[in-house]
Design a protein that fits this description.
alpha+beta, four-stranded antiparallel beta sheet, globular, 10 helices, five-stranded mixed beta sheet, single chain, NADH Oxidase
Length: 336
Amino acid sequence: MASARIPAGVARRTAREIDEALRHAAAMAGDAPSVHNTQPWRWHVADGALELWADRDRQLRVADPVGRMLTVSCGTALHHALVALAAQGLRPAVVPLPDPARPDLLARVTVSGNAPITSADIRMYDATALRRTDRRPVSPDRMDETTMQALANAARPHGAVLRYLTRDRVAAVAELAAAATEAQQADEAWRAELRRWTGDPGTSGTGVPDVNLPERPVRNPVPERDFGRRGTLPVGDEPGGEPVYAVLCGEEDRPAGWLAAGQALSALWLTAGELGVSVVPVSSVIEVPVTRRALRDLLGSTTWPYLVLRLGLTDPRERGPLATPRLPADRTVDEA
């Protein structure tokens, strides 16, 4: 007879095997993208359940005081974990924010049954290890409508909408990004926080090392994060192409919406990797309250912006950037 803790659909797997699959999923979720590569999550595995917790020790207290970007980052990790479970032939069931008395408990994942492993499941799983944040210029080749629609379709099932920007709105967002950058650069506490998370050679397992920062400034229509230092990532002498810009939006400006936005971001980013598209988040506009409100007004005040994204094709002939460092699983996954 199956254990009472294991759903009937997975009765042929023991409780120990289910927990092991959940541990593997949590460990693989460490490859998920996060703001400044802070990896602000912790997982707890016990009794057939995988719990996702916010790790406030790795929150950007100055740039992200309410934890919006932290929660979006945790959402990307949640989606990565679900991808890993699907690749193991398991059907996950997710309850977001299951306990109002414990707001840092962001999600609880259990296994509701077996599922056939599809080629799409394997491709998505493989994509988690290959995903990068490539800050180099995009290729001169422009994305076609089919590719753009595929990215939007990847985000939609998770409750977020990818809204592509027209040229005039790109110019308006560029002004907002410049204003956000100016406001942040004027704040010494913000600069100190940024220094804490950049330039480390990778020994800490977190942050953005120099090998992931361009060796010289990259000019784009929308200003991106100025990390205050030049890295060692080769940029090349050829001029890049013109990126496409989009805003990831949703209906809720609260943790449930932010968590869903992270799942949508992960889904579209993994899809982008399959299609040869680079994704670079431009979060400064969201981090500064006045520019975030202005962006919402620009979009018609009917939706909440979660992230601005720079999108563009990569050059398949060029080697991409190295992976950013990752915390070992024993730093992010707890067991009962």
